[in-house]
Design goal:
alpha+beta, Serine Threonine Protein Phosphatase 5, Tetratricopeptide repeat, 28 helices, 8 strands, elongated
C-alpha cells in the first residue's frame, strides 16, 4: 500500500533549518541488499471457355472483409431517420500528398517468420534492479524488531496502532522518523522533512539509492496528485498538499517492493510506452500473481500487438480473479471482435451489460461497442446500432464535467468513438440524406477531438486524427455519388505517417502501420467496387507495404487472413480488370502460403468464400499454362465449398463454377473420364437446385 499520511506521532523538538543535501545525504545511504533475499529473479476467377469465375470476383468486390469495422455495401434492411445531431461545421479538407511511392513487397515467408525485435523485458541490462531501499541499514520487509533496536537503539516514543507498532526515532538533524512494525518486522519507514523541498532536488540527492528507477505519480480518488513512487525501490515521495502543483516533498517513505506501484506505472505508460509497461507488468506478476489488473493491462498490450490468443487468455484470467470489473469484460469483448467472433462478442456483451451499471463511463463505452456489433454482425441492424451509439453519446455527455479526470477523458473517448460509429451506421444502412448525415457525425467528432482537455493528453490528441480520417474514408462506401476519394486517402496517410514517424516504441510503430494499412484497404475495396482498377492497384500496393510491416510479430489468424485477402484482391484486379493473368499470379503466389497457413483453422462460415477464392485463383494459373497448380487450387477450393455446403454456410449453387471449371480443365488435358465425372456432378447439381 502507498503512504497517504504519516502515523500520528509528533516530534518532541523542531530541528533547525538545514540544507536538503545535508539532511538527506547524512541519513539515506545507498546500501546493497542481499540479492538472495530482496531481488526479484529475472529468467534470464477469369474466363476459360465455359468457366464463370468473374461473377464470383465481382461479388467478392462488393462484400465486406471479415474484420472489425470492415466495409459493407447497403443491405436490404429498412431505413429510418437518424438521431438528432449538431449542426455541421465546415468539411475537413486535409492537405494532399504529392506522390505515393511503392516499395518492393516483402516475400511472404519473411512476413510469416519475422524475427522478434525490441528489448527482452526480462533481460534488459538498462532496467534498474528491483530491491527495497535501505535507510541507515534498516530495510523494510527484512529487518526485524531486534535488528532495528541493535542498529538504532531504543525508540523515543512507541504507540500501538491495532496490530502494528509505531516507533519514533531521531537521527542527527532528522528528528521525526517513524517506523512501523508488524509481526516482528519493519514494515515501513517515514521520514518527515523539516520543510518541503523541490522534488527534483530530493531525487538528485537520492539518485544513488534510486538507481534510475522512474517514478510514477500517485493520484487520489479525484485524480489529484498526492505523491510519487519509485517502484523498483519501494520509495515514496509525498507532496505538500498546499503546494501540490509545485511538487514539494514533505515526506519520504520506504516500504517493501510490491506489485501495486509497478501496476500503477504500467497503466500510466500503457498507451505511450507499451514495451516498458509490459516490463512493469511482468515484475508485478512475479510479486503478486493473483492481481487481476495485471492480466487486464497485459491483454490490452497484446491487443496492440495483434497477439489475440494471448489477450484472450489474460482477459479470462482477469475476469476469473475479479468478475465485477466492467473494464475487464469490455476488453474481453474487444478481443473477441478482433478475432472476428462478432456474434459471440455481441451475445457476451448483452449478457454482461448490467455489470457496467455502477460505472457510467464504462456503461457508455459498452453501449458504443454494442452499436458497433449490431452494425457488423451477420445480420446487421443499423437502426439498433445507431440507437446504441446515440445512447452512449447521451450518457457520456453527462460525464464531461466529472471531477475525476480519468472519467472525463474516458467519456471523451466514448463521445468520439460513438460519433464515428454512428457515421458508419449511416454509411452502411439505408437512410435518407446519407452524405449530409455522415458529414454531421464526423464534423462533431472533429469538434470533440479539438477539445482543449483532450488536446492536453498526448495519446488522444495524436491518435484521434487517424481515427477520424479512417472513418471518413470508410464511410464513402455508402455515399451514393462517386466522390473524390483522394482527400480522404491523403488525410489517412498524413495522420498515419505522423504517428509512425513519432513512434518510439516498436509495439506502437507496428500498431500504427497496421491501422494505416486497414484504412488503405478500405480504399481499395471502394475503388474495386467502383471498377476504378488502376487507382485500386495503386493504393492496394501501398496498403500491402504498410500491412507487411505492421503484421510482423502479430499472432492473429484474422489479421493474417486479411493480408491474404489483400494479396488476392490485387491479383483479382489484375485478372478481372486488366485481363493480365501473369501479373495476377505474382500476387496469388503471395496469397497462397497465407491461405495454406490459415486453412486448417478457418471458421466454418468462411469456408465457402475461401473455396471460391482458390477456384478463382486457379483460373489465372490455368491461363498462364501452370496446369497442375490450377487443378490443385480448383480441387482444393471445391473441397472447401463442399464443406461449407455441408455446414449450411454457403448455397449449394456455389458448386457449379468449380464443377464446370474442372470439367473444362480435364477435357482440355484429354482426361475425359475425370471431365465426364465433373460434368455428371454438375448435371446432378442442376437438377437439385432447379
Amino acid at each position: 500500500m502507498f503512504f497517504v499520511e504519516s502515523y500520528i506521532l509528533k516530534s518532541l523538538a523542531v530541528g533547525k533549518a538545514i540544507t536538503l543535501t545535508v539532511c538527506i545525504a547524512t541519513c539515506l545511504i545507498s546500501h546493497a541488499i542481499q540479492a538472495e533475499e530482496a531481488d526479484i529473479s529475472r529468467p534470464p476467377r477469369m474466363a476459360l471457355p465455359r468457366m464463370t469465375a468473374e461473377s464470383v470476383e465481382e461479388r467478392d468486390a462488393t462484400s465486406a472483409e471479415k474484420r472489425p469495422a470492415s466495409l459493407k455495401g447497403d443491405g436490404d434492411e429498412g431505413g429510418g431517420e437518424i438521431a438528432a445531431i449538431p449542426e455541421p461545421s465546415s468539411v475537413h479538407e486535409p492537405e494532399r500528398h504529392e506522390t505515393v511511392q511503392r516499395r518492393t513487397p516483402k516475400p511472404v515467408a519473411d512476413v510469416l517468420s519475422s524475427e522478434q525485435s525490441g528489448i527482452d523485458p526480462l533481460n534488459d541490462p538498462l532496467h534498474p534492479p528491483v530491491w527495497t531501499a535501505s535507510f541507515q541499514g534498516v530495510v523494510p520487509g527484512l529487518t526485524t524488531q531486534e535488528g532495528l533496536e541493535r542498529l538504532w537503539g531504543k525508540a523515543l516514543k512507541t504507540a500501538t496502532l491495532g496490530d502494528q507498532i509505531a516507533q519514533l526515532y531521531s537521527h542527527g538533524v532528522l528528528n521525526h522518523i517513524e517506523v512501523i512494525l508488524k509481526d516482528g518486522l519493519v514494515r515501513s519507514i517515514v521520514v518527515q522533512l523539516g520543510e518541503p523541498f523541490p522534488e527534483e532536488q530530493v531525487r538528485e540527492v537520492l539518485k544513488a539509492e534510486l538507481l534510475k528507477s522512474k517514478p510514477v505519480l500517485i493520484p487520489d480518488e479525484k485524480g489529484g496528485i498526492i505523491g510519487e513512487v519509485f517502484p523498483e525501490k519501494g520509495v515514496v515521495f509525498l507532496f505538500a498538499q498546499d503546494a501540490a502543483d509545485l511538487l514539494l516533498v514533505k515526506q519520504i517513505g520506504i516500504e517493501p517492493v510490491s506489485a501495486e506501484p509497478f501496476v500503477l506505472r504500467a497503466e500510466a505508460t500503457l498507451n505511450s510506452q507499451p514495451t516498458e509497461s509490459r516490463r512493469d507488468l511482468l515484475d508485478a506478476m512475479r510479486l503478486s500473481p493473483d492481481e487481476a489488473k495485471i492480466y487486464w493491462l497485459l491483454a490490452q498490450i497484446e491487443l496492440m500487438e495483434g497477439q489475440v490468443e494471448a489477450a484472450l487468455v489474460n482477459c479470462e484470467r482477469a475476469i476469473r480473479l475479479d468478475k465485477e470489473r466492467p473494464a475487464y469484460h469490455l476488453t474481453y469483448v474487444q478481443t473477441l471482435i478482433n478475432m472476428n467472433r462478432v456474434e459471440e462478442a455481441k451475445l457476451y456483451l448483452e449478457e454482461t451489460l448490467g455489470i457496467c451499471d455502477r460505472y457510467p463511463h464504462e456503461k457508455a463505452k459498452a453501449l458504443s461497442l454494442l452499436g458497433d456489433l449490431f452494425r457488423t454482425s451477420q445480420e446487421p441492424d443499423y437502426e439498433l446500432a445507431i440507437e446504441c451509439h446515440s445512447n452512449a453519446i447521451r450518457l457520456a455527455m453527462t460525464l464531461i464535467d466529472h471531477p475525476n479526470e480519468t472519467v472525463r477523458l474516458a467519456a471523451r473517448d466514448v463521445l468520439l468513438d460513438a460519433h464515428l460509429g454512428a457515421a458508419r451506421d449511416v454509411a452502411w444502412g439505408r437512410w435518407e440524406n446519407k452524405e449530409e448525415s455522415i458529414r454531421k457525425w464526423i464534423s462533431r467528432a472533429q469538434e470533440i477531438a479539438r477539445d482543449p482537455e483532450a488536446l492536453g493528453i498526448t495519446r488522444q490528441s495524436k491518435e484521434y486524427p487517424l481515427k477520424i480520417a479512417a472513418c471518413a474514408l470508410a464511410a464513402q462506401v455508402g455515399v451514393p455519388e462517386q466522390t473524390n476519394m483522394e482527400p480522404y486517402i491523403h488525410a489517412v496517410l498524413e495522420a498515419g505517417d505522423a504517428l509512425i514517424e513519432s513512434a518510439r516504441d516498436p509495439i506502437l510503430l507496428r500498431k500504427y502501420q497496421w491501422e494505416t494499412s486497414l484504412s488503405l484497404y478500405d480504399a481499395v475495396q471502394i475503388f474495386q467496387l467502383r471498377k476504378q482498377y488502376a487507382i485500386a492497384l495503386k493504393y492496394g500496393e501501398l496498403a500491402a507495404d504498410y500491412m507487411e510491416e505492421g503484421i510482423r510479430e502479430r499472432n492473429s489468424d484474422t489479421d493474417l487472413y486479411l493480408l491474404g485477402r489483400l494479396y488476392f484482391r490485387l491479383g483479382a484486379i489484375h485478372a478481372i480488370g486488366n485481363r493480365n493473368h501473369r501479373a495476377a499470379i505474382e500476387w496469388y503466389d503471395l496469397a497462397k502460403p497465407v491461405f495454406e497457413t490459415i486453412l486448417p483453422k478457418i471458421n466454418p462460415e468462411a469456408l465457402g468464400r475461401l473455396g471460391e477464392t482458390l477456384v478463382s485463383m486457379g483460373v489465372s494459373y490455368w491461363m498462364t499454362q501452370q496446369r497442375d497448380e490450377a487443378i490443385r487450387l480448383t480441387e482444393r477450393g471445391l473441397k472447401q465449398i463442399e464443406r461449407g455446403v455441408r455446414n449450411k454456410m454457403i448455397e449449394e449453387s456455389a458448386l457449379a463454377i468449380p464443377y464446370s471449371n474442372l470439367e473444362s480443365m480435364y477435357r482440355d488435358l484429354g482426361q475425359d473420364d475425370k471431365a465426364d465425372r465433373y460434368k455428371k456432378m454438375a448435371a446432378t447439381l442442376s437438377e437439385t437446385i432447379r
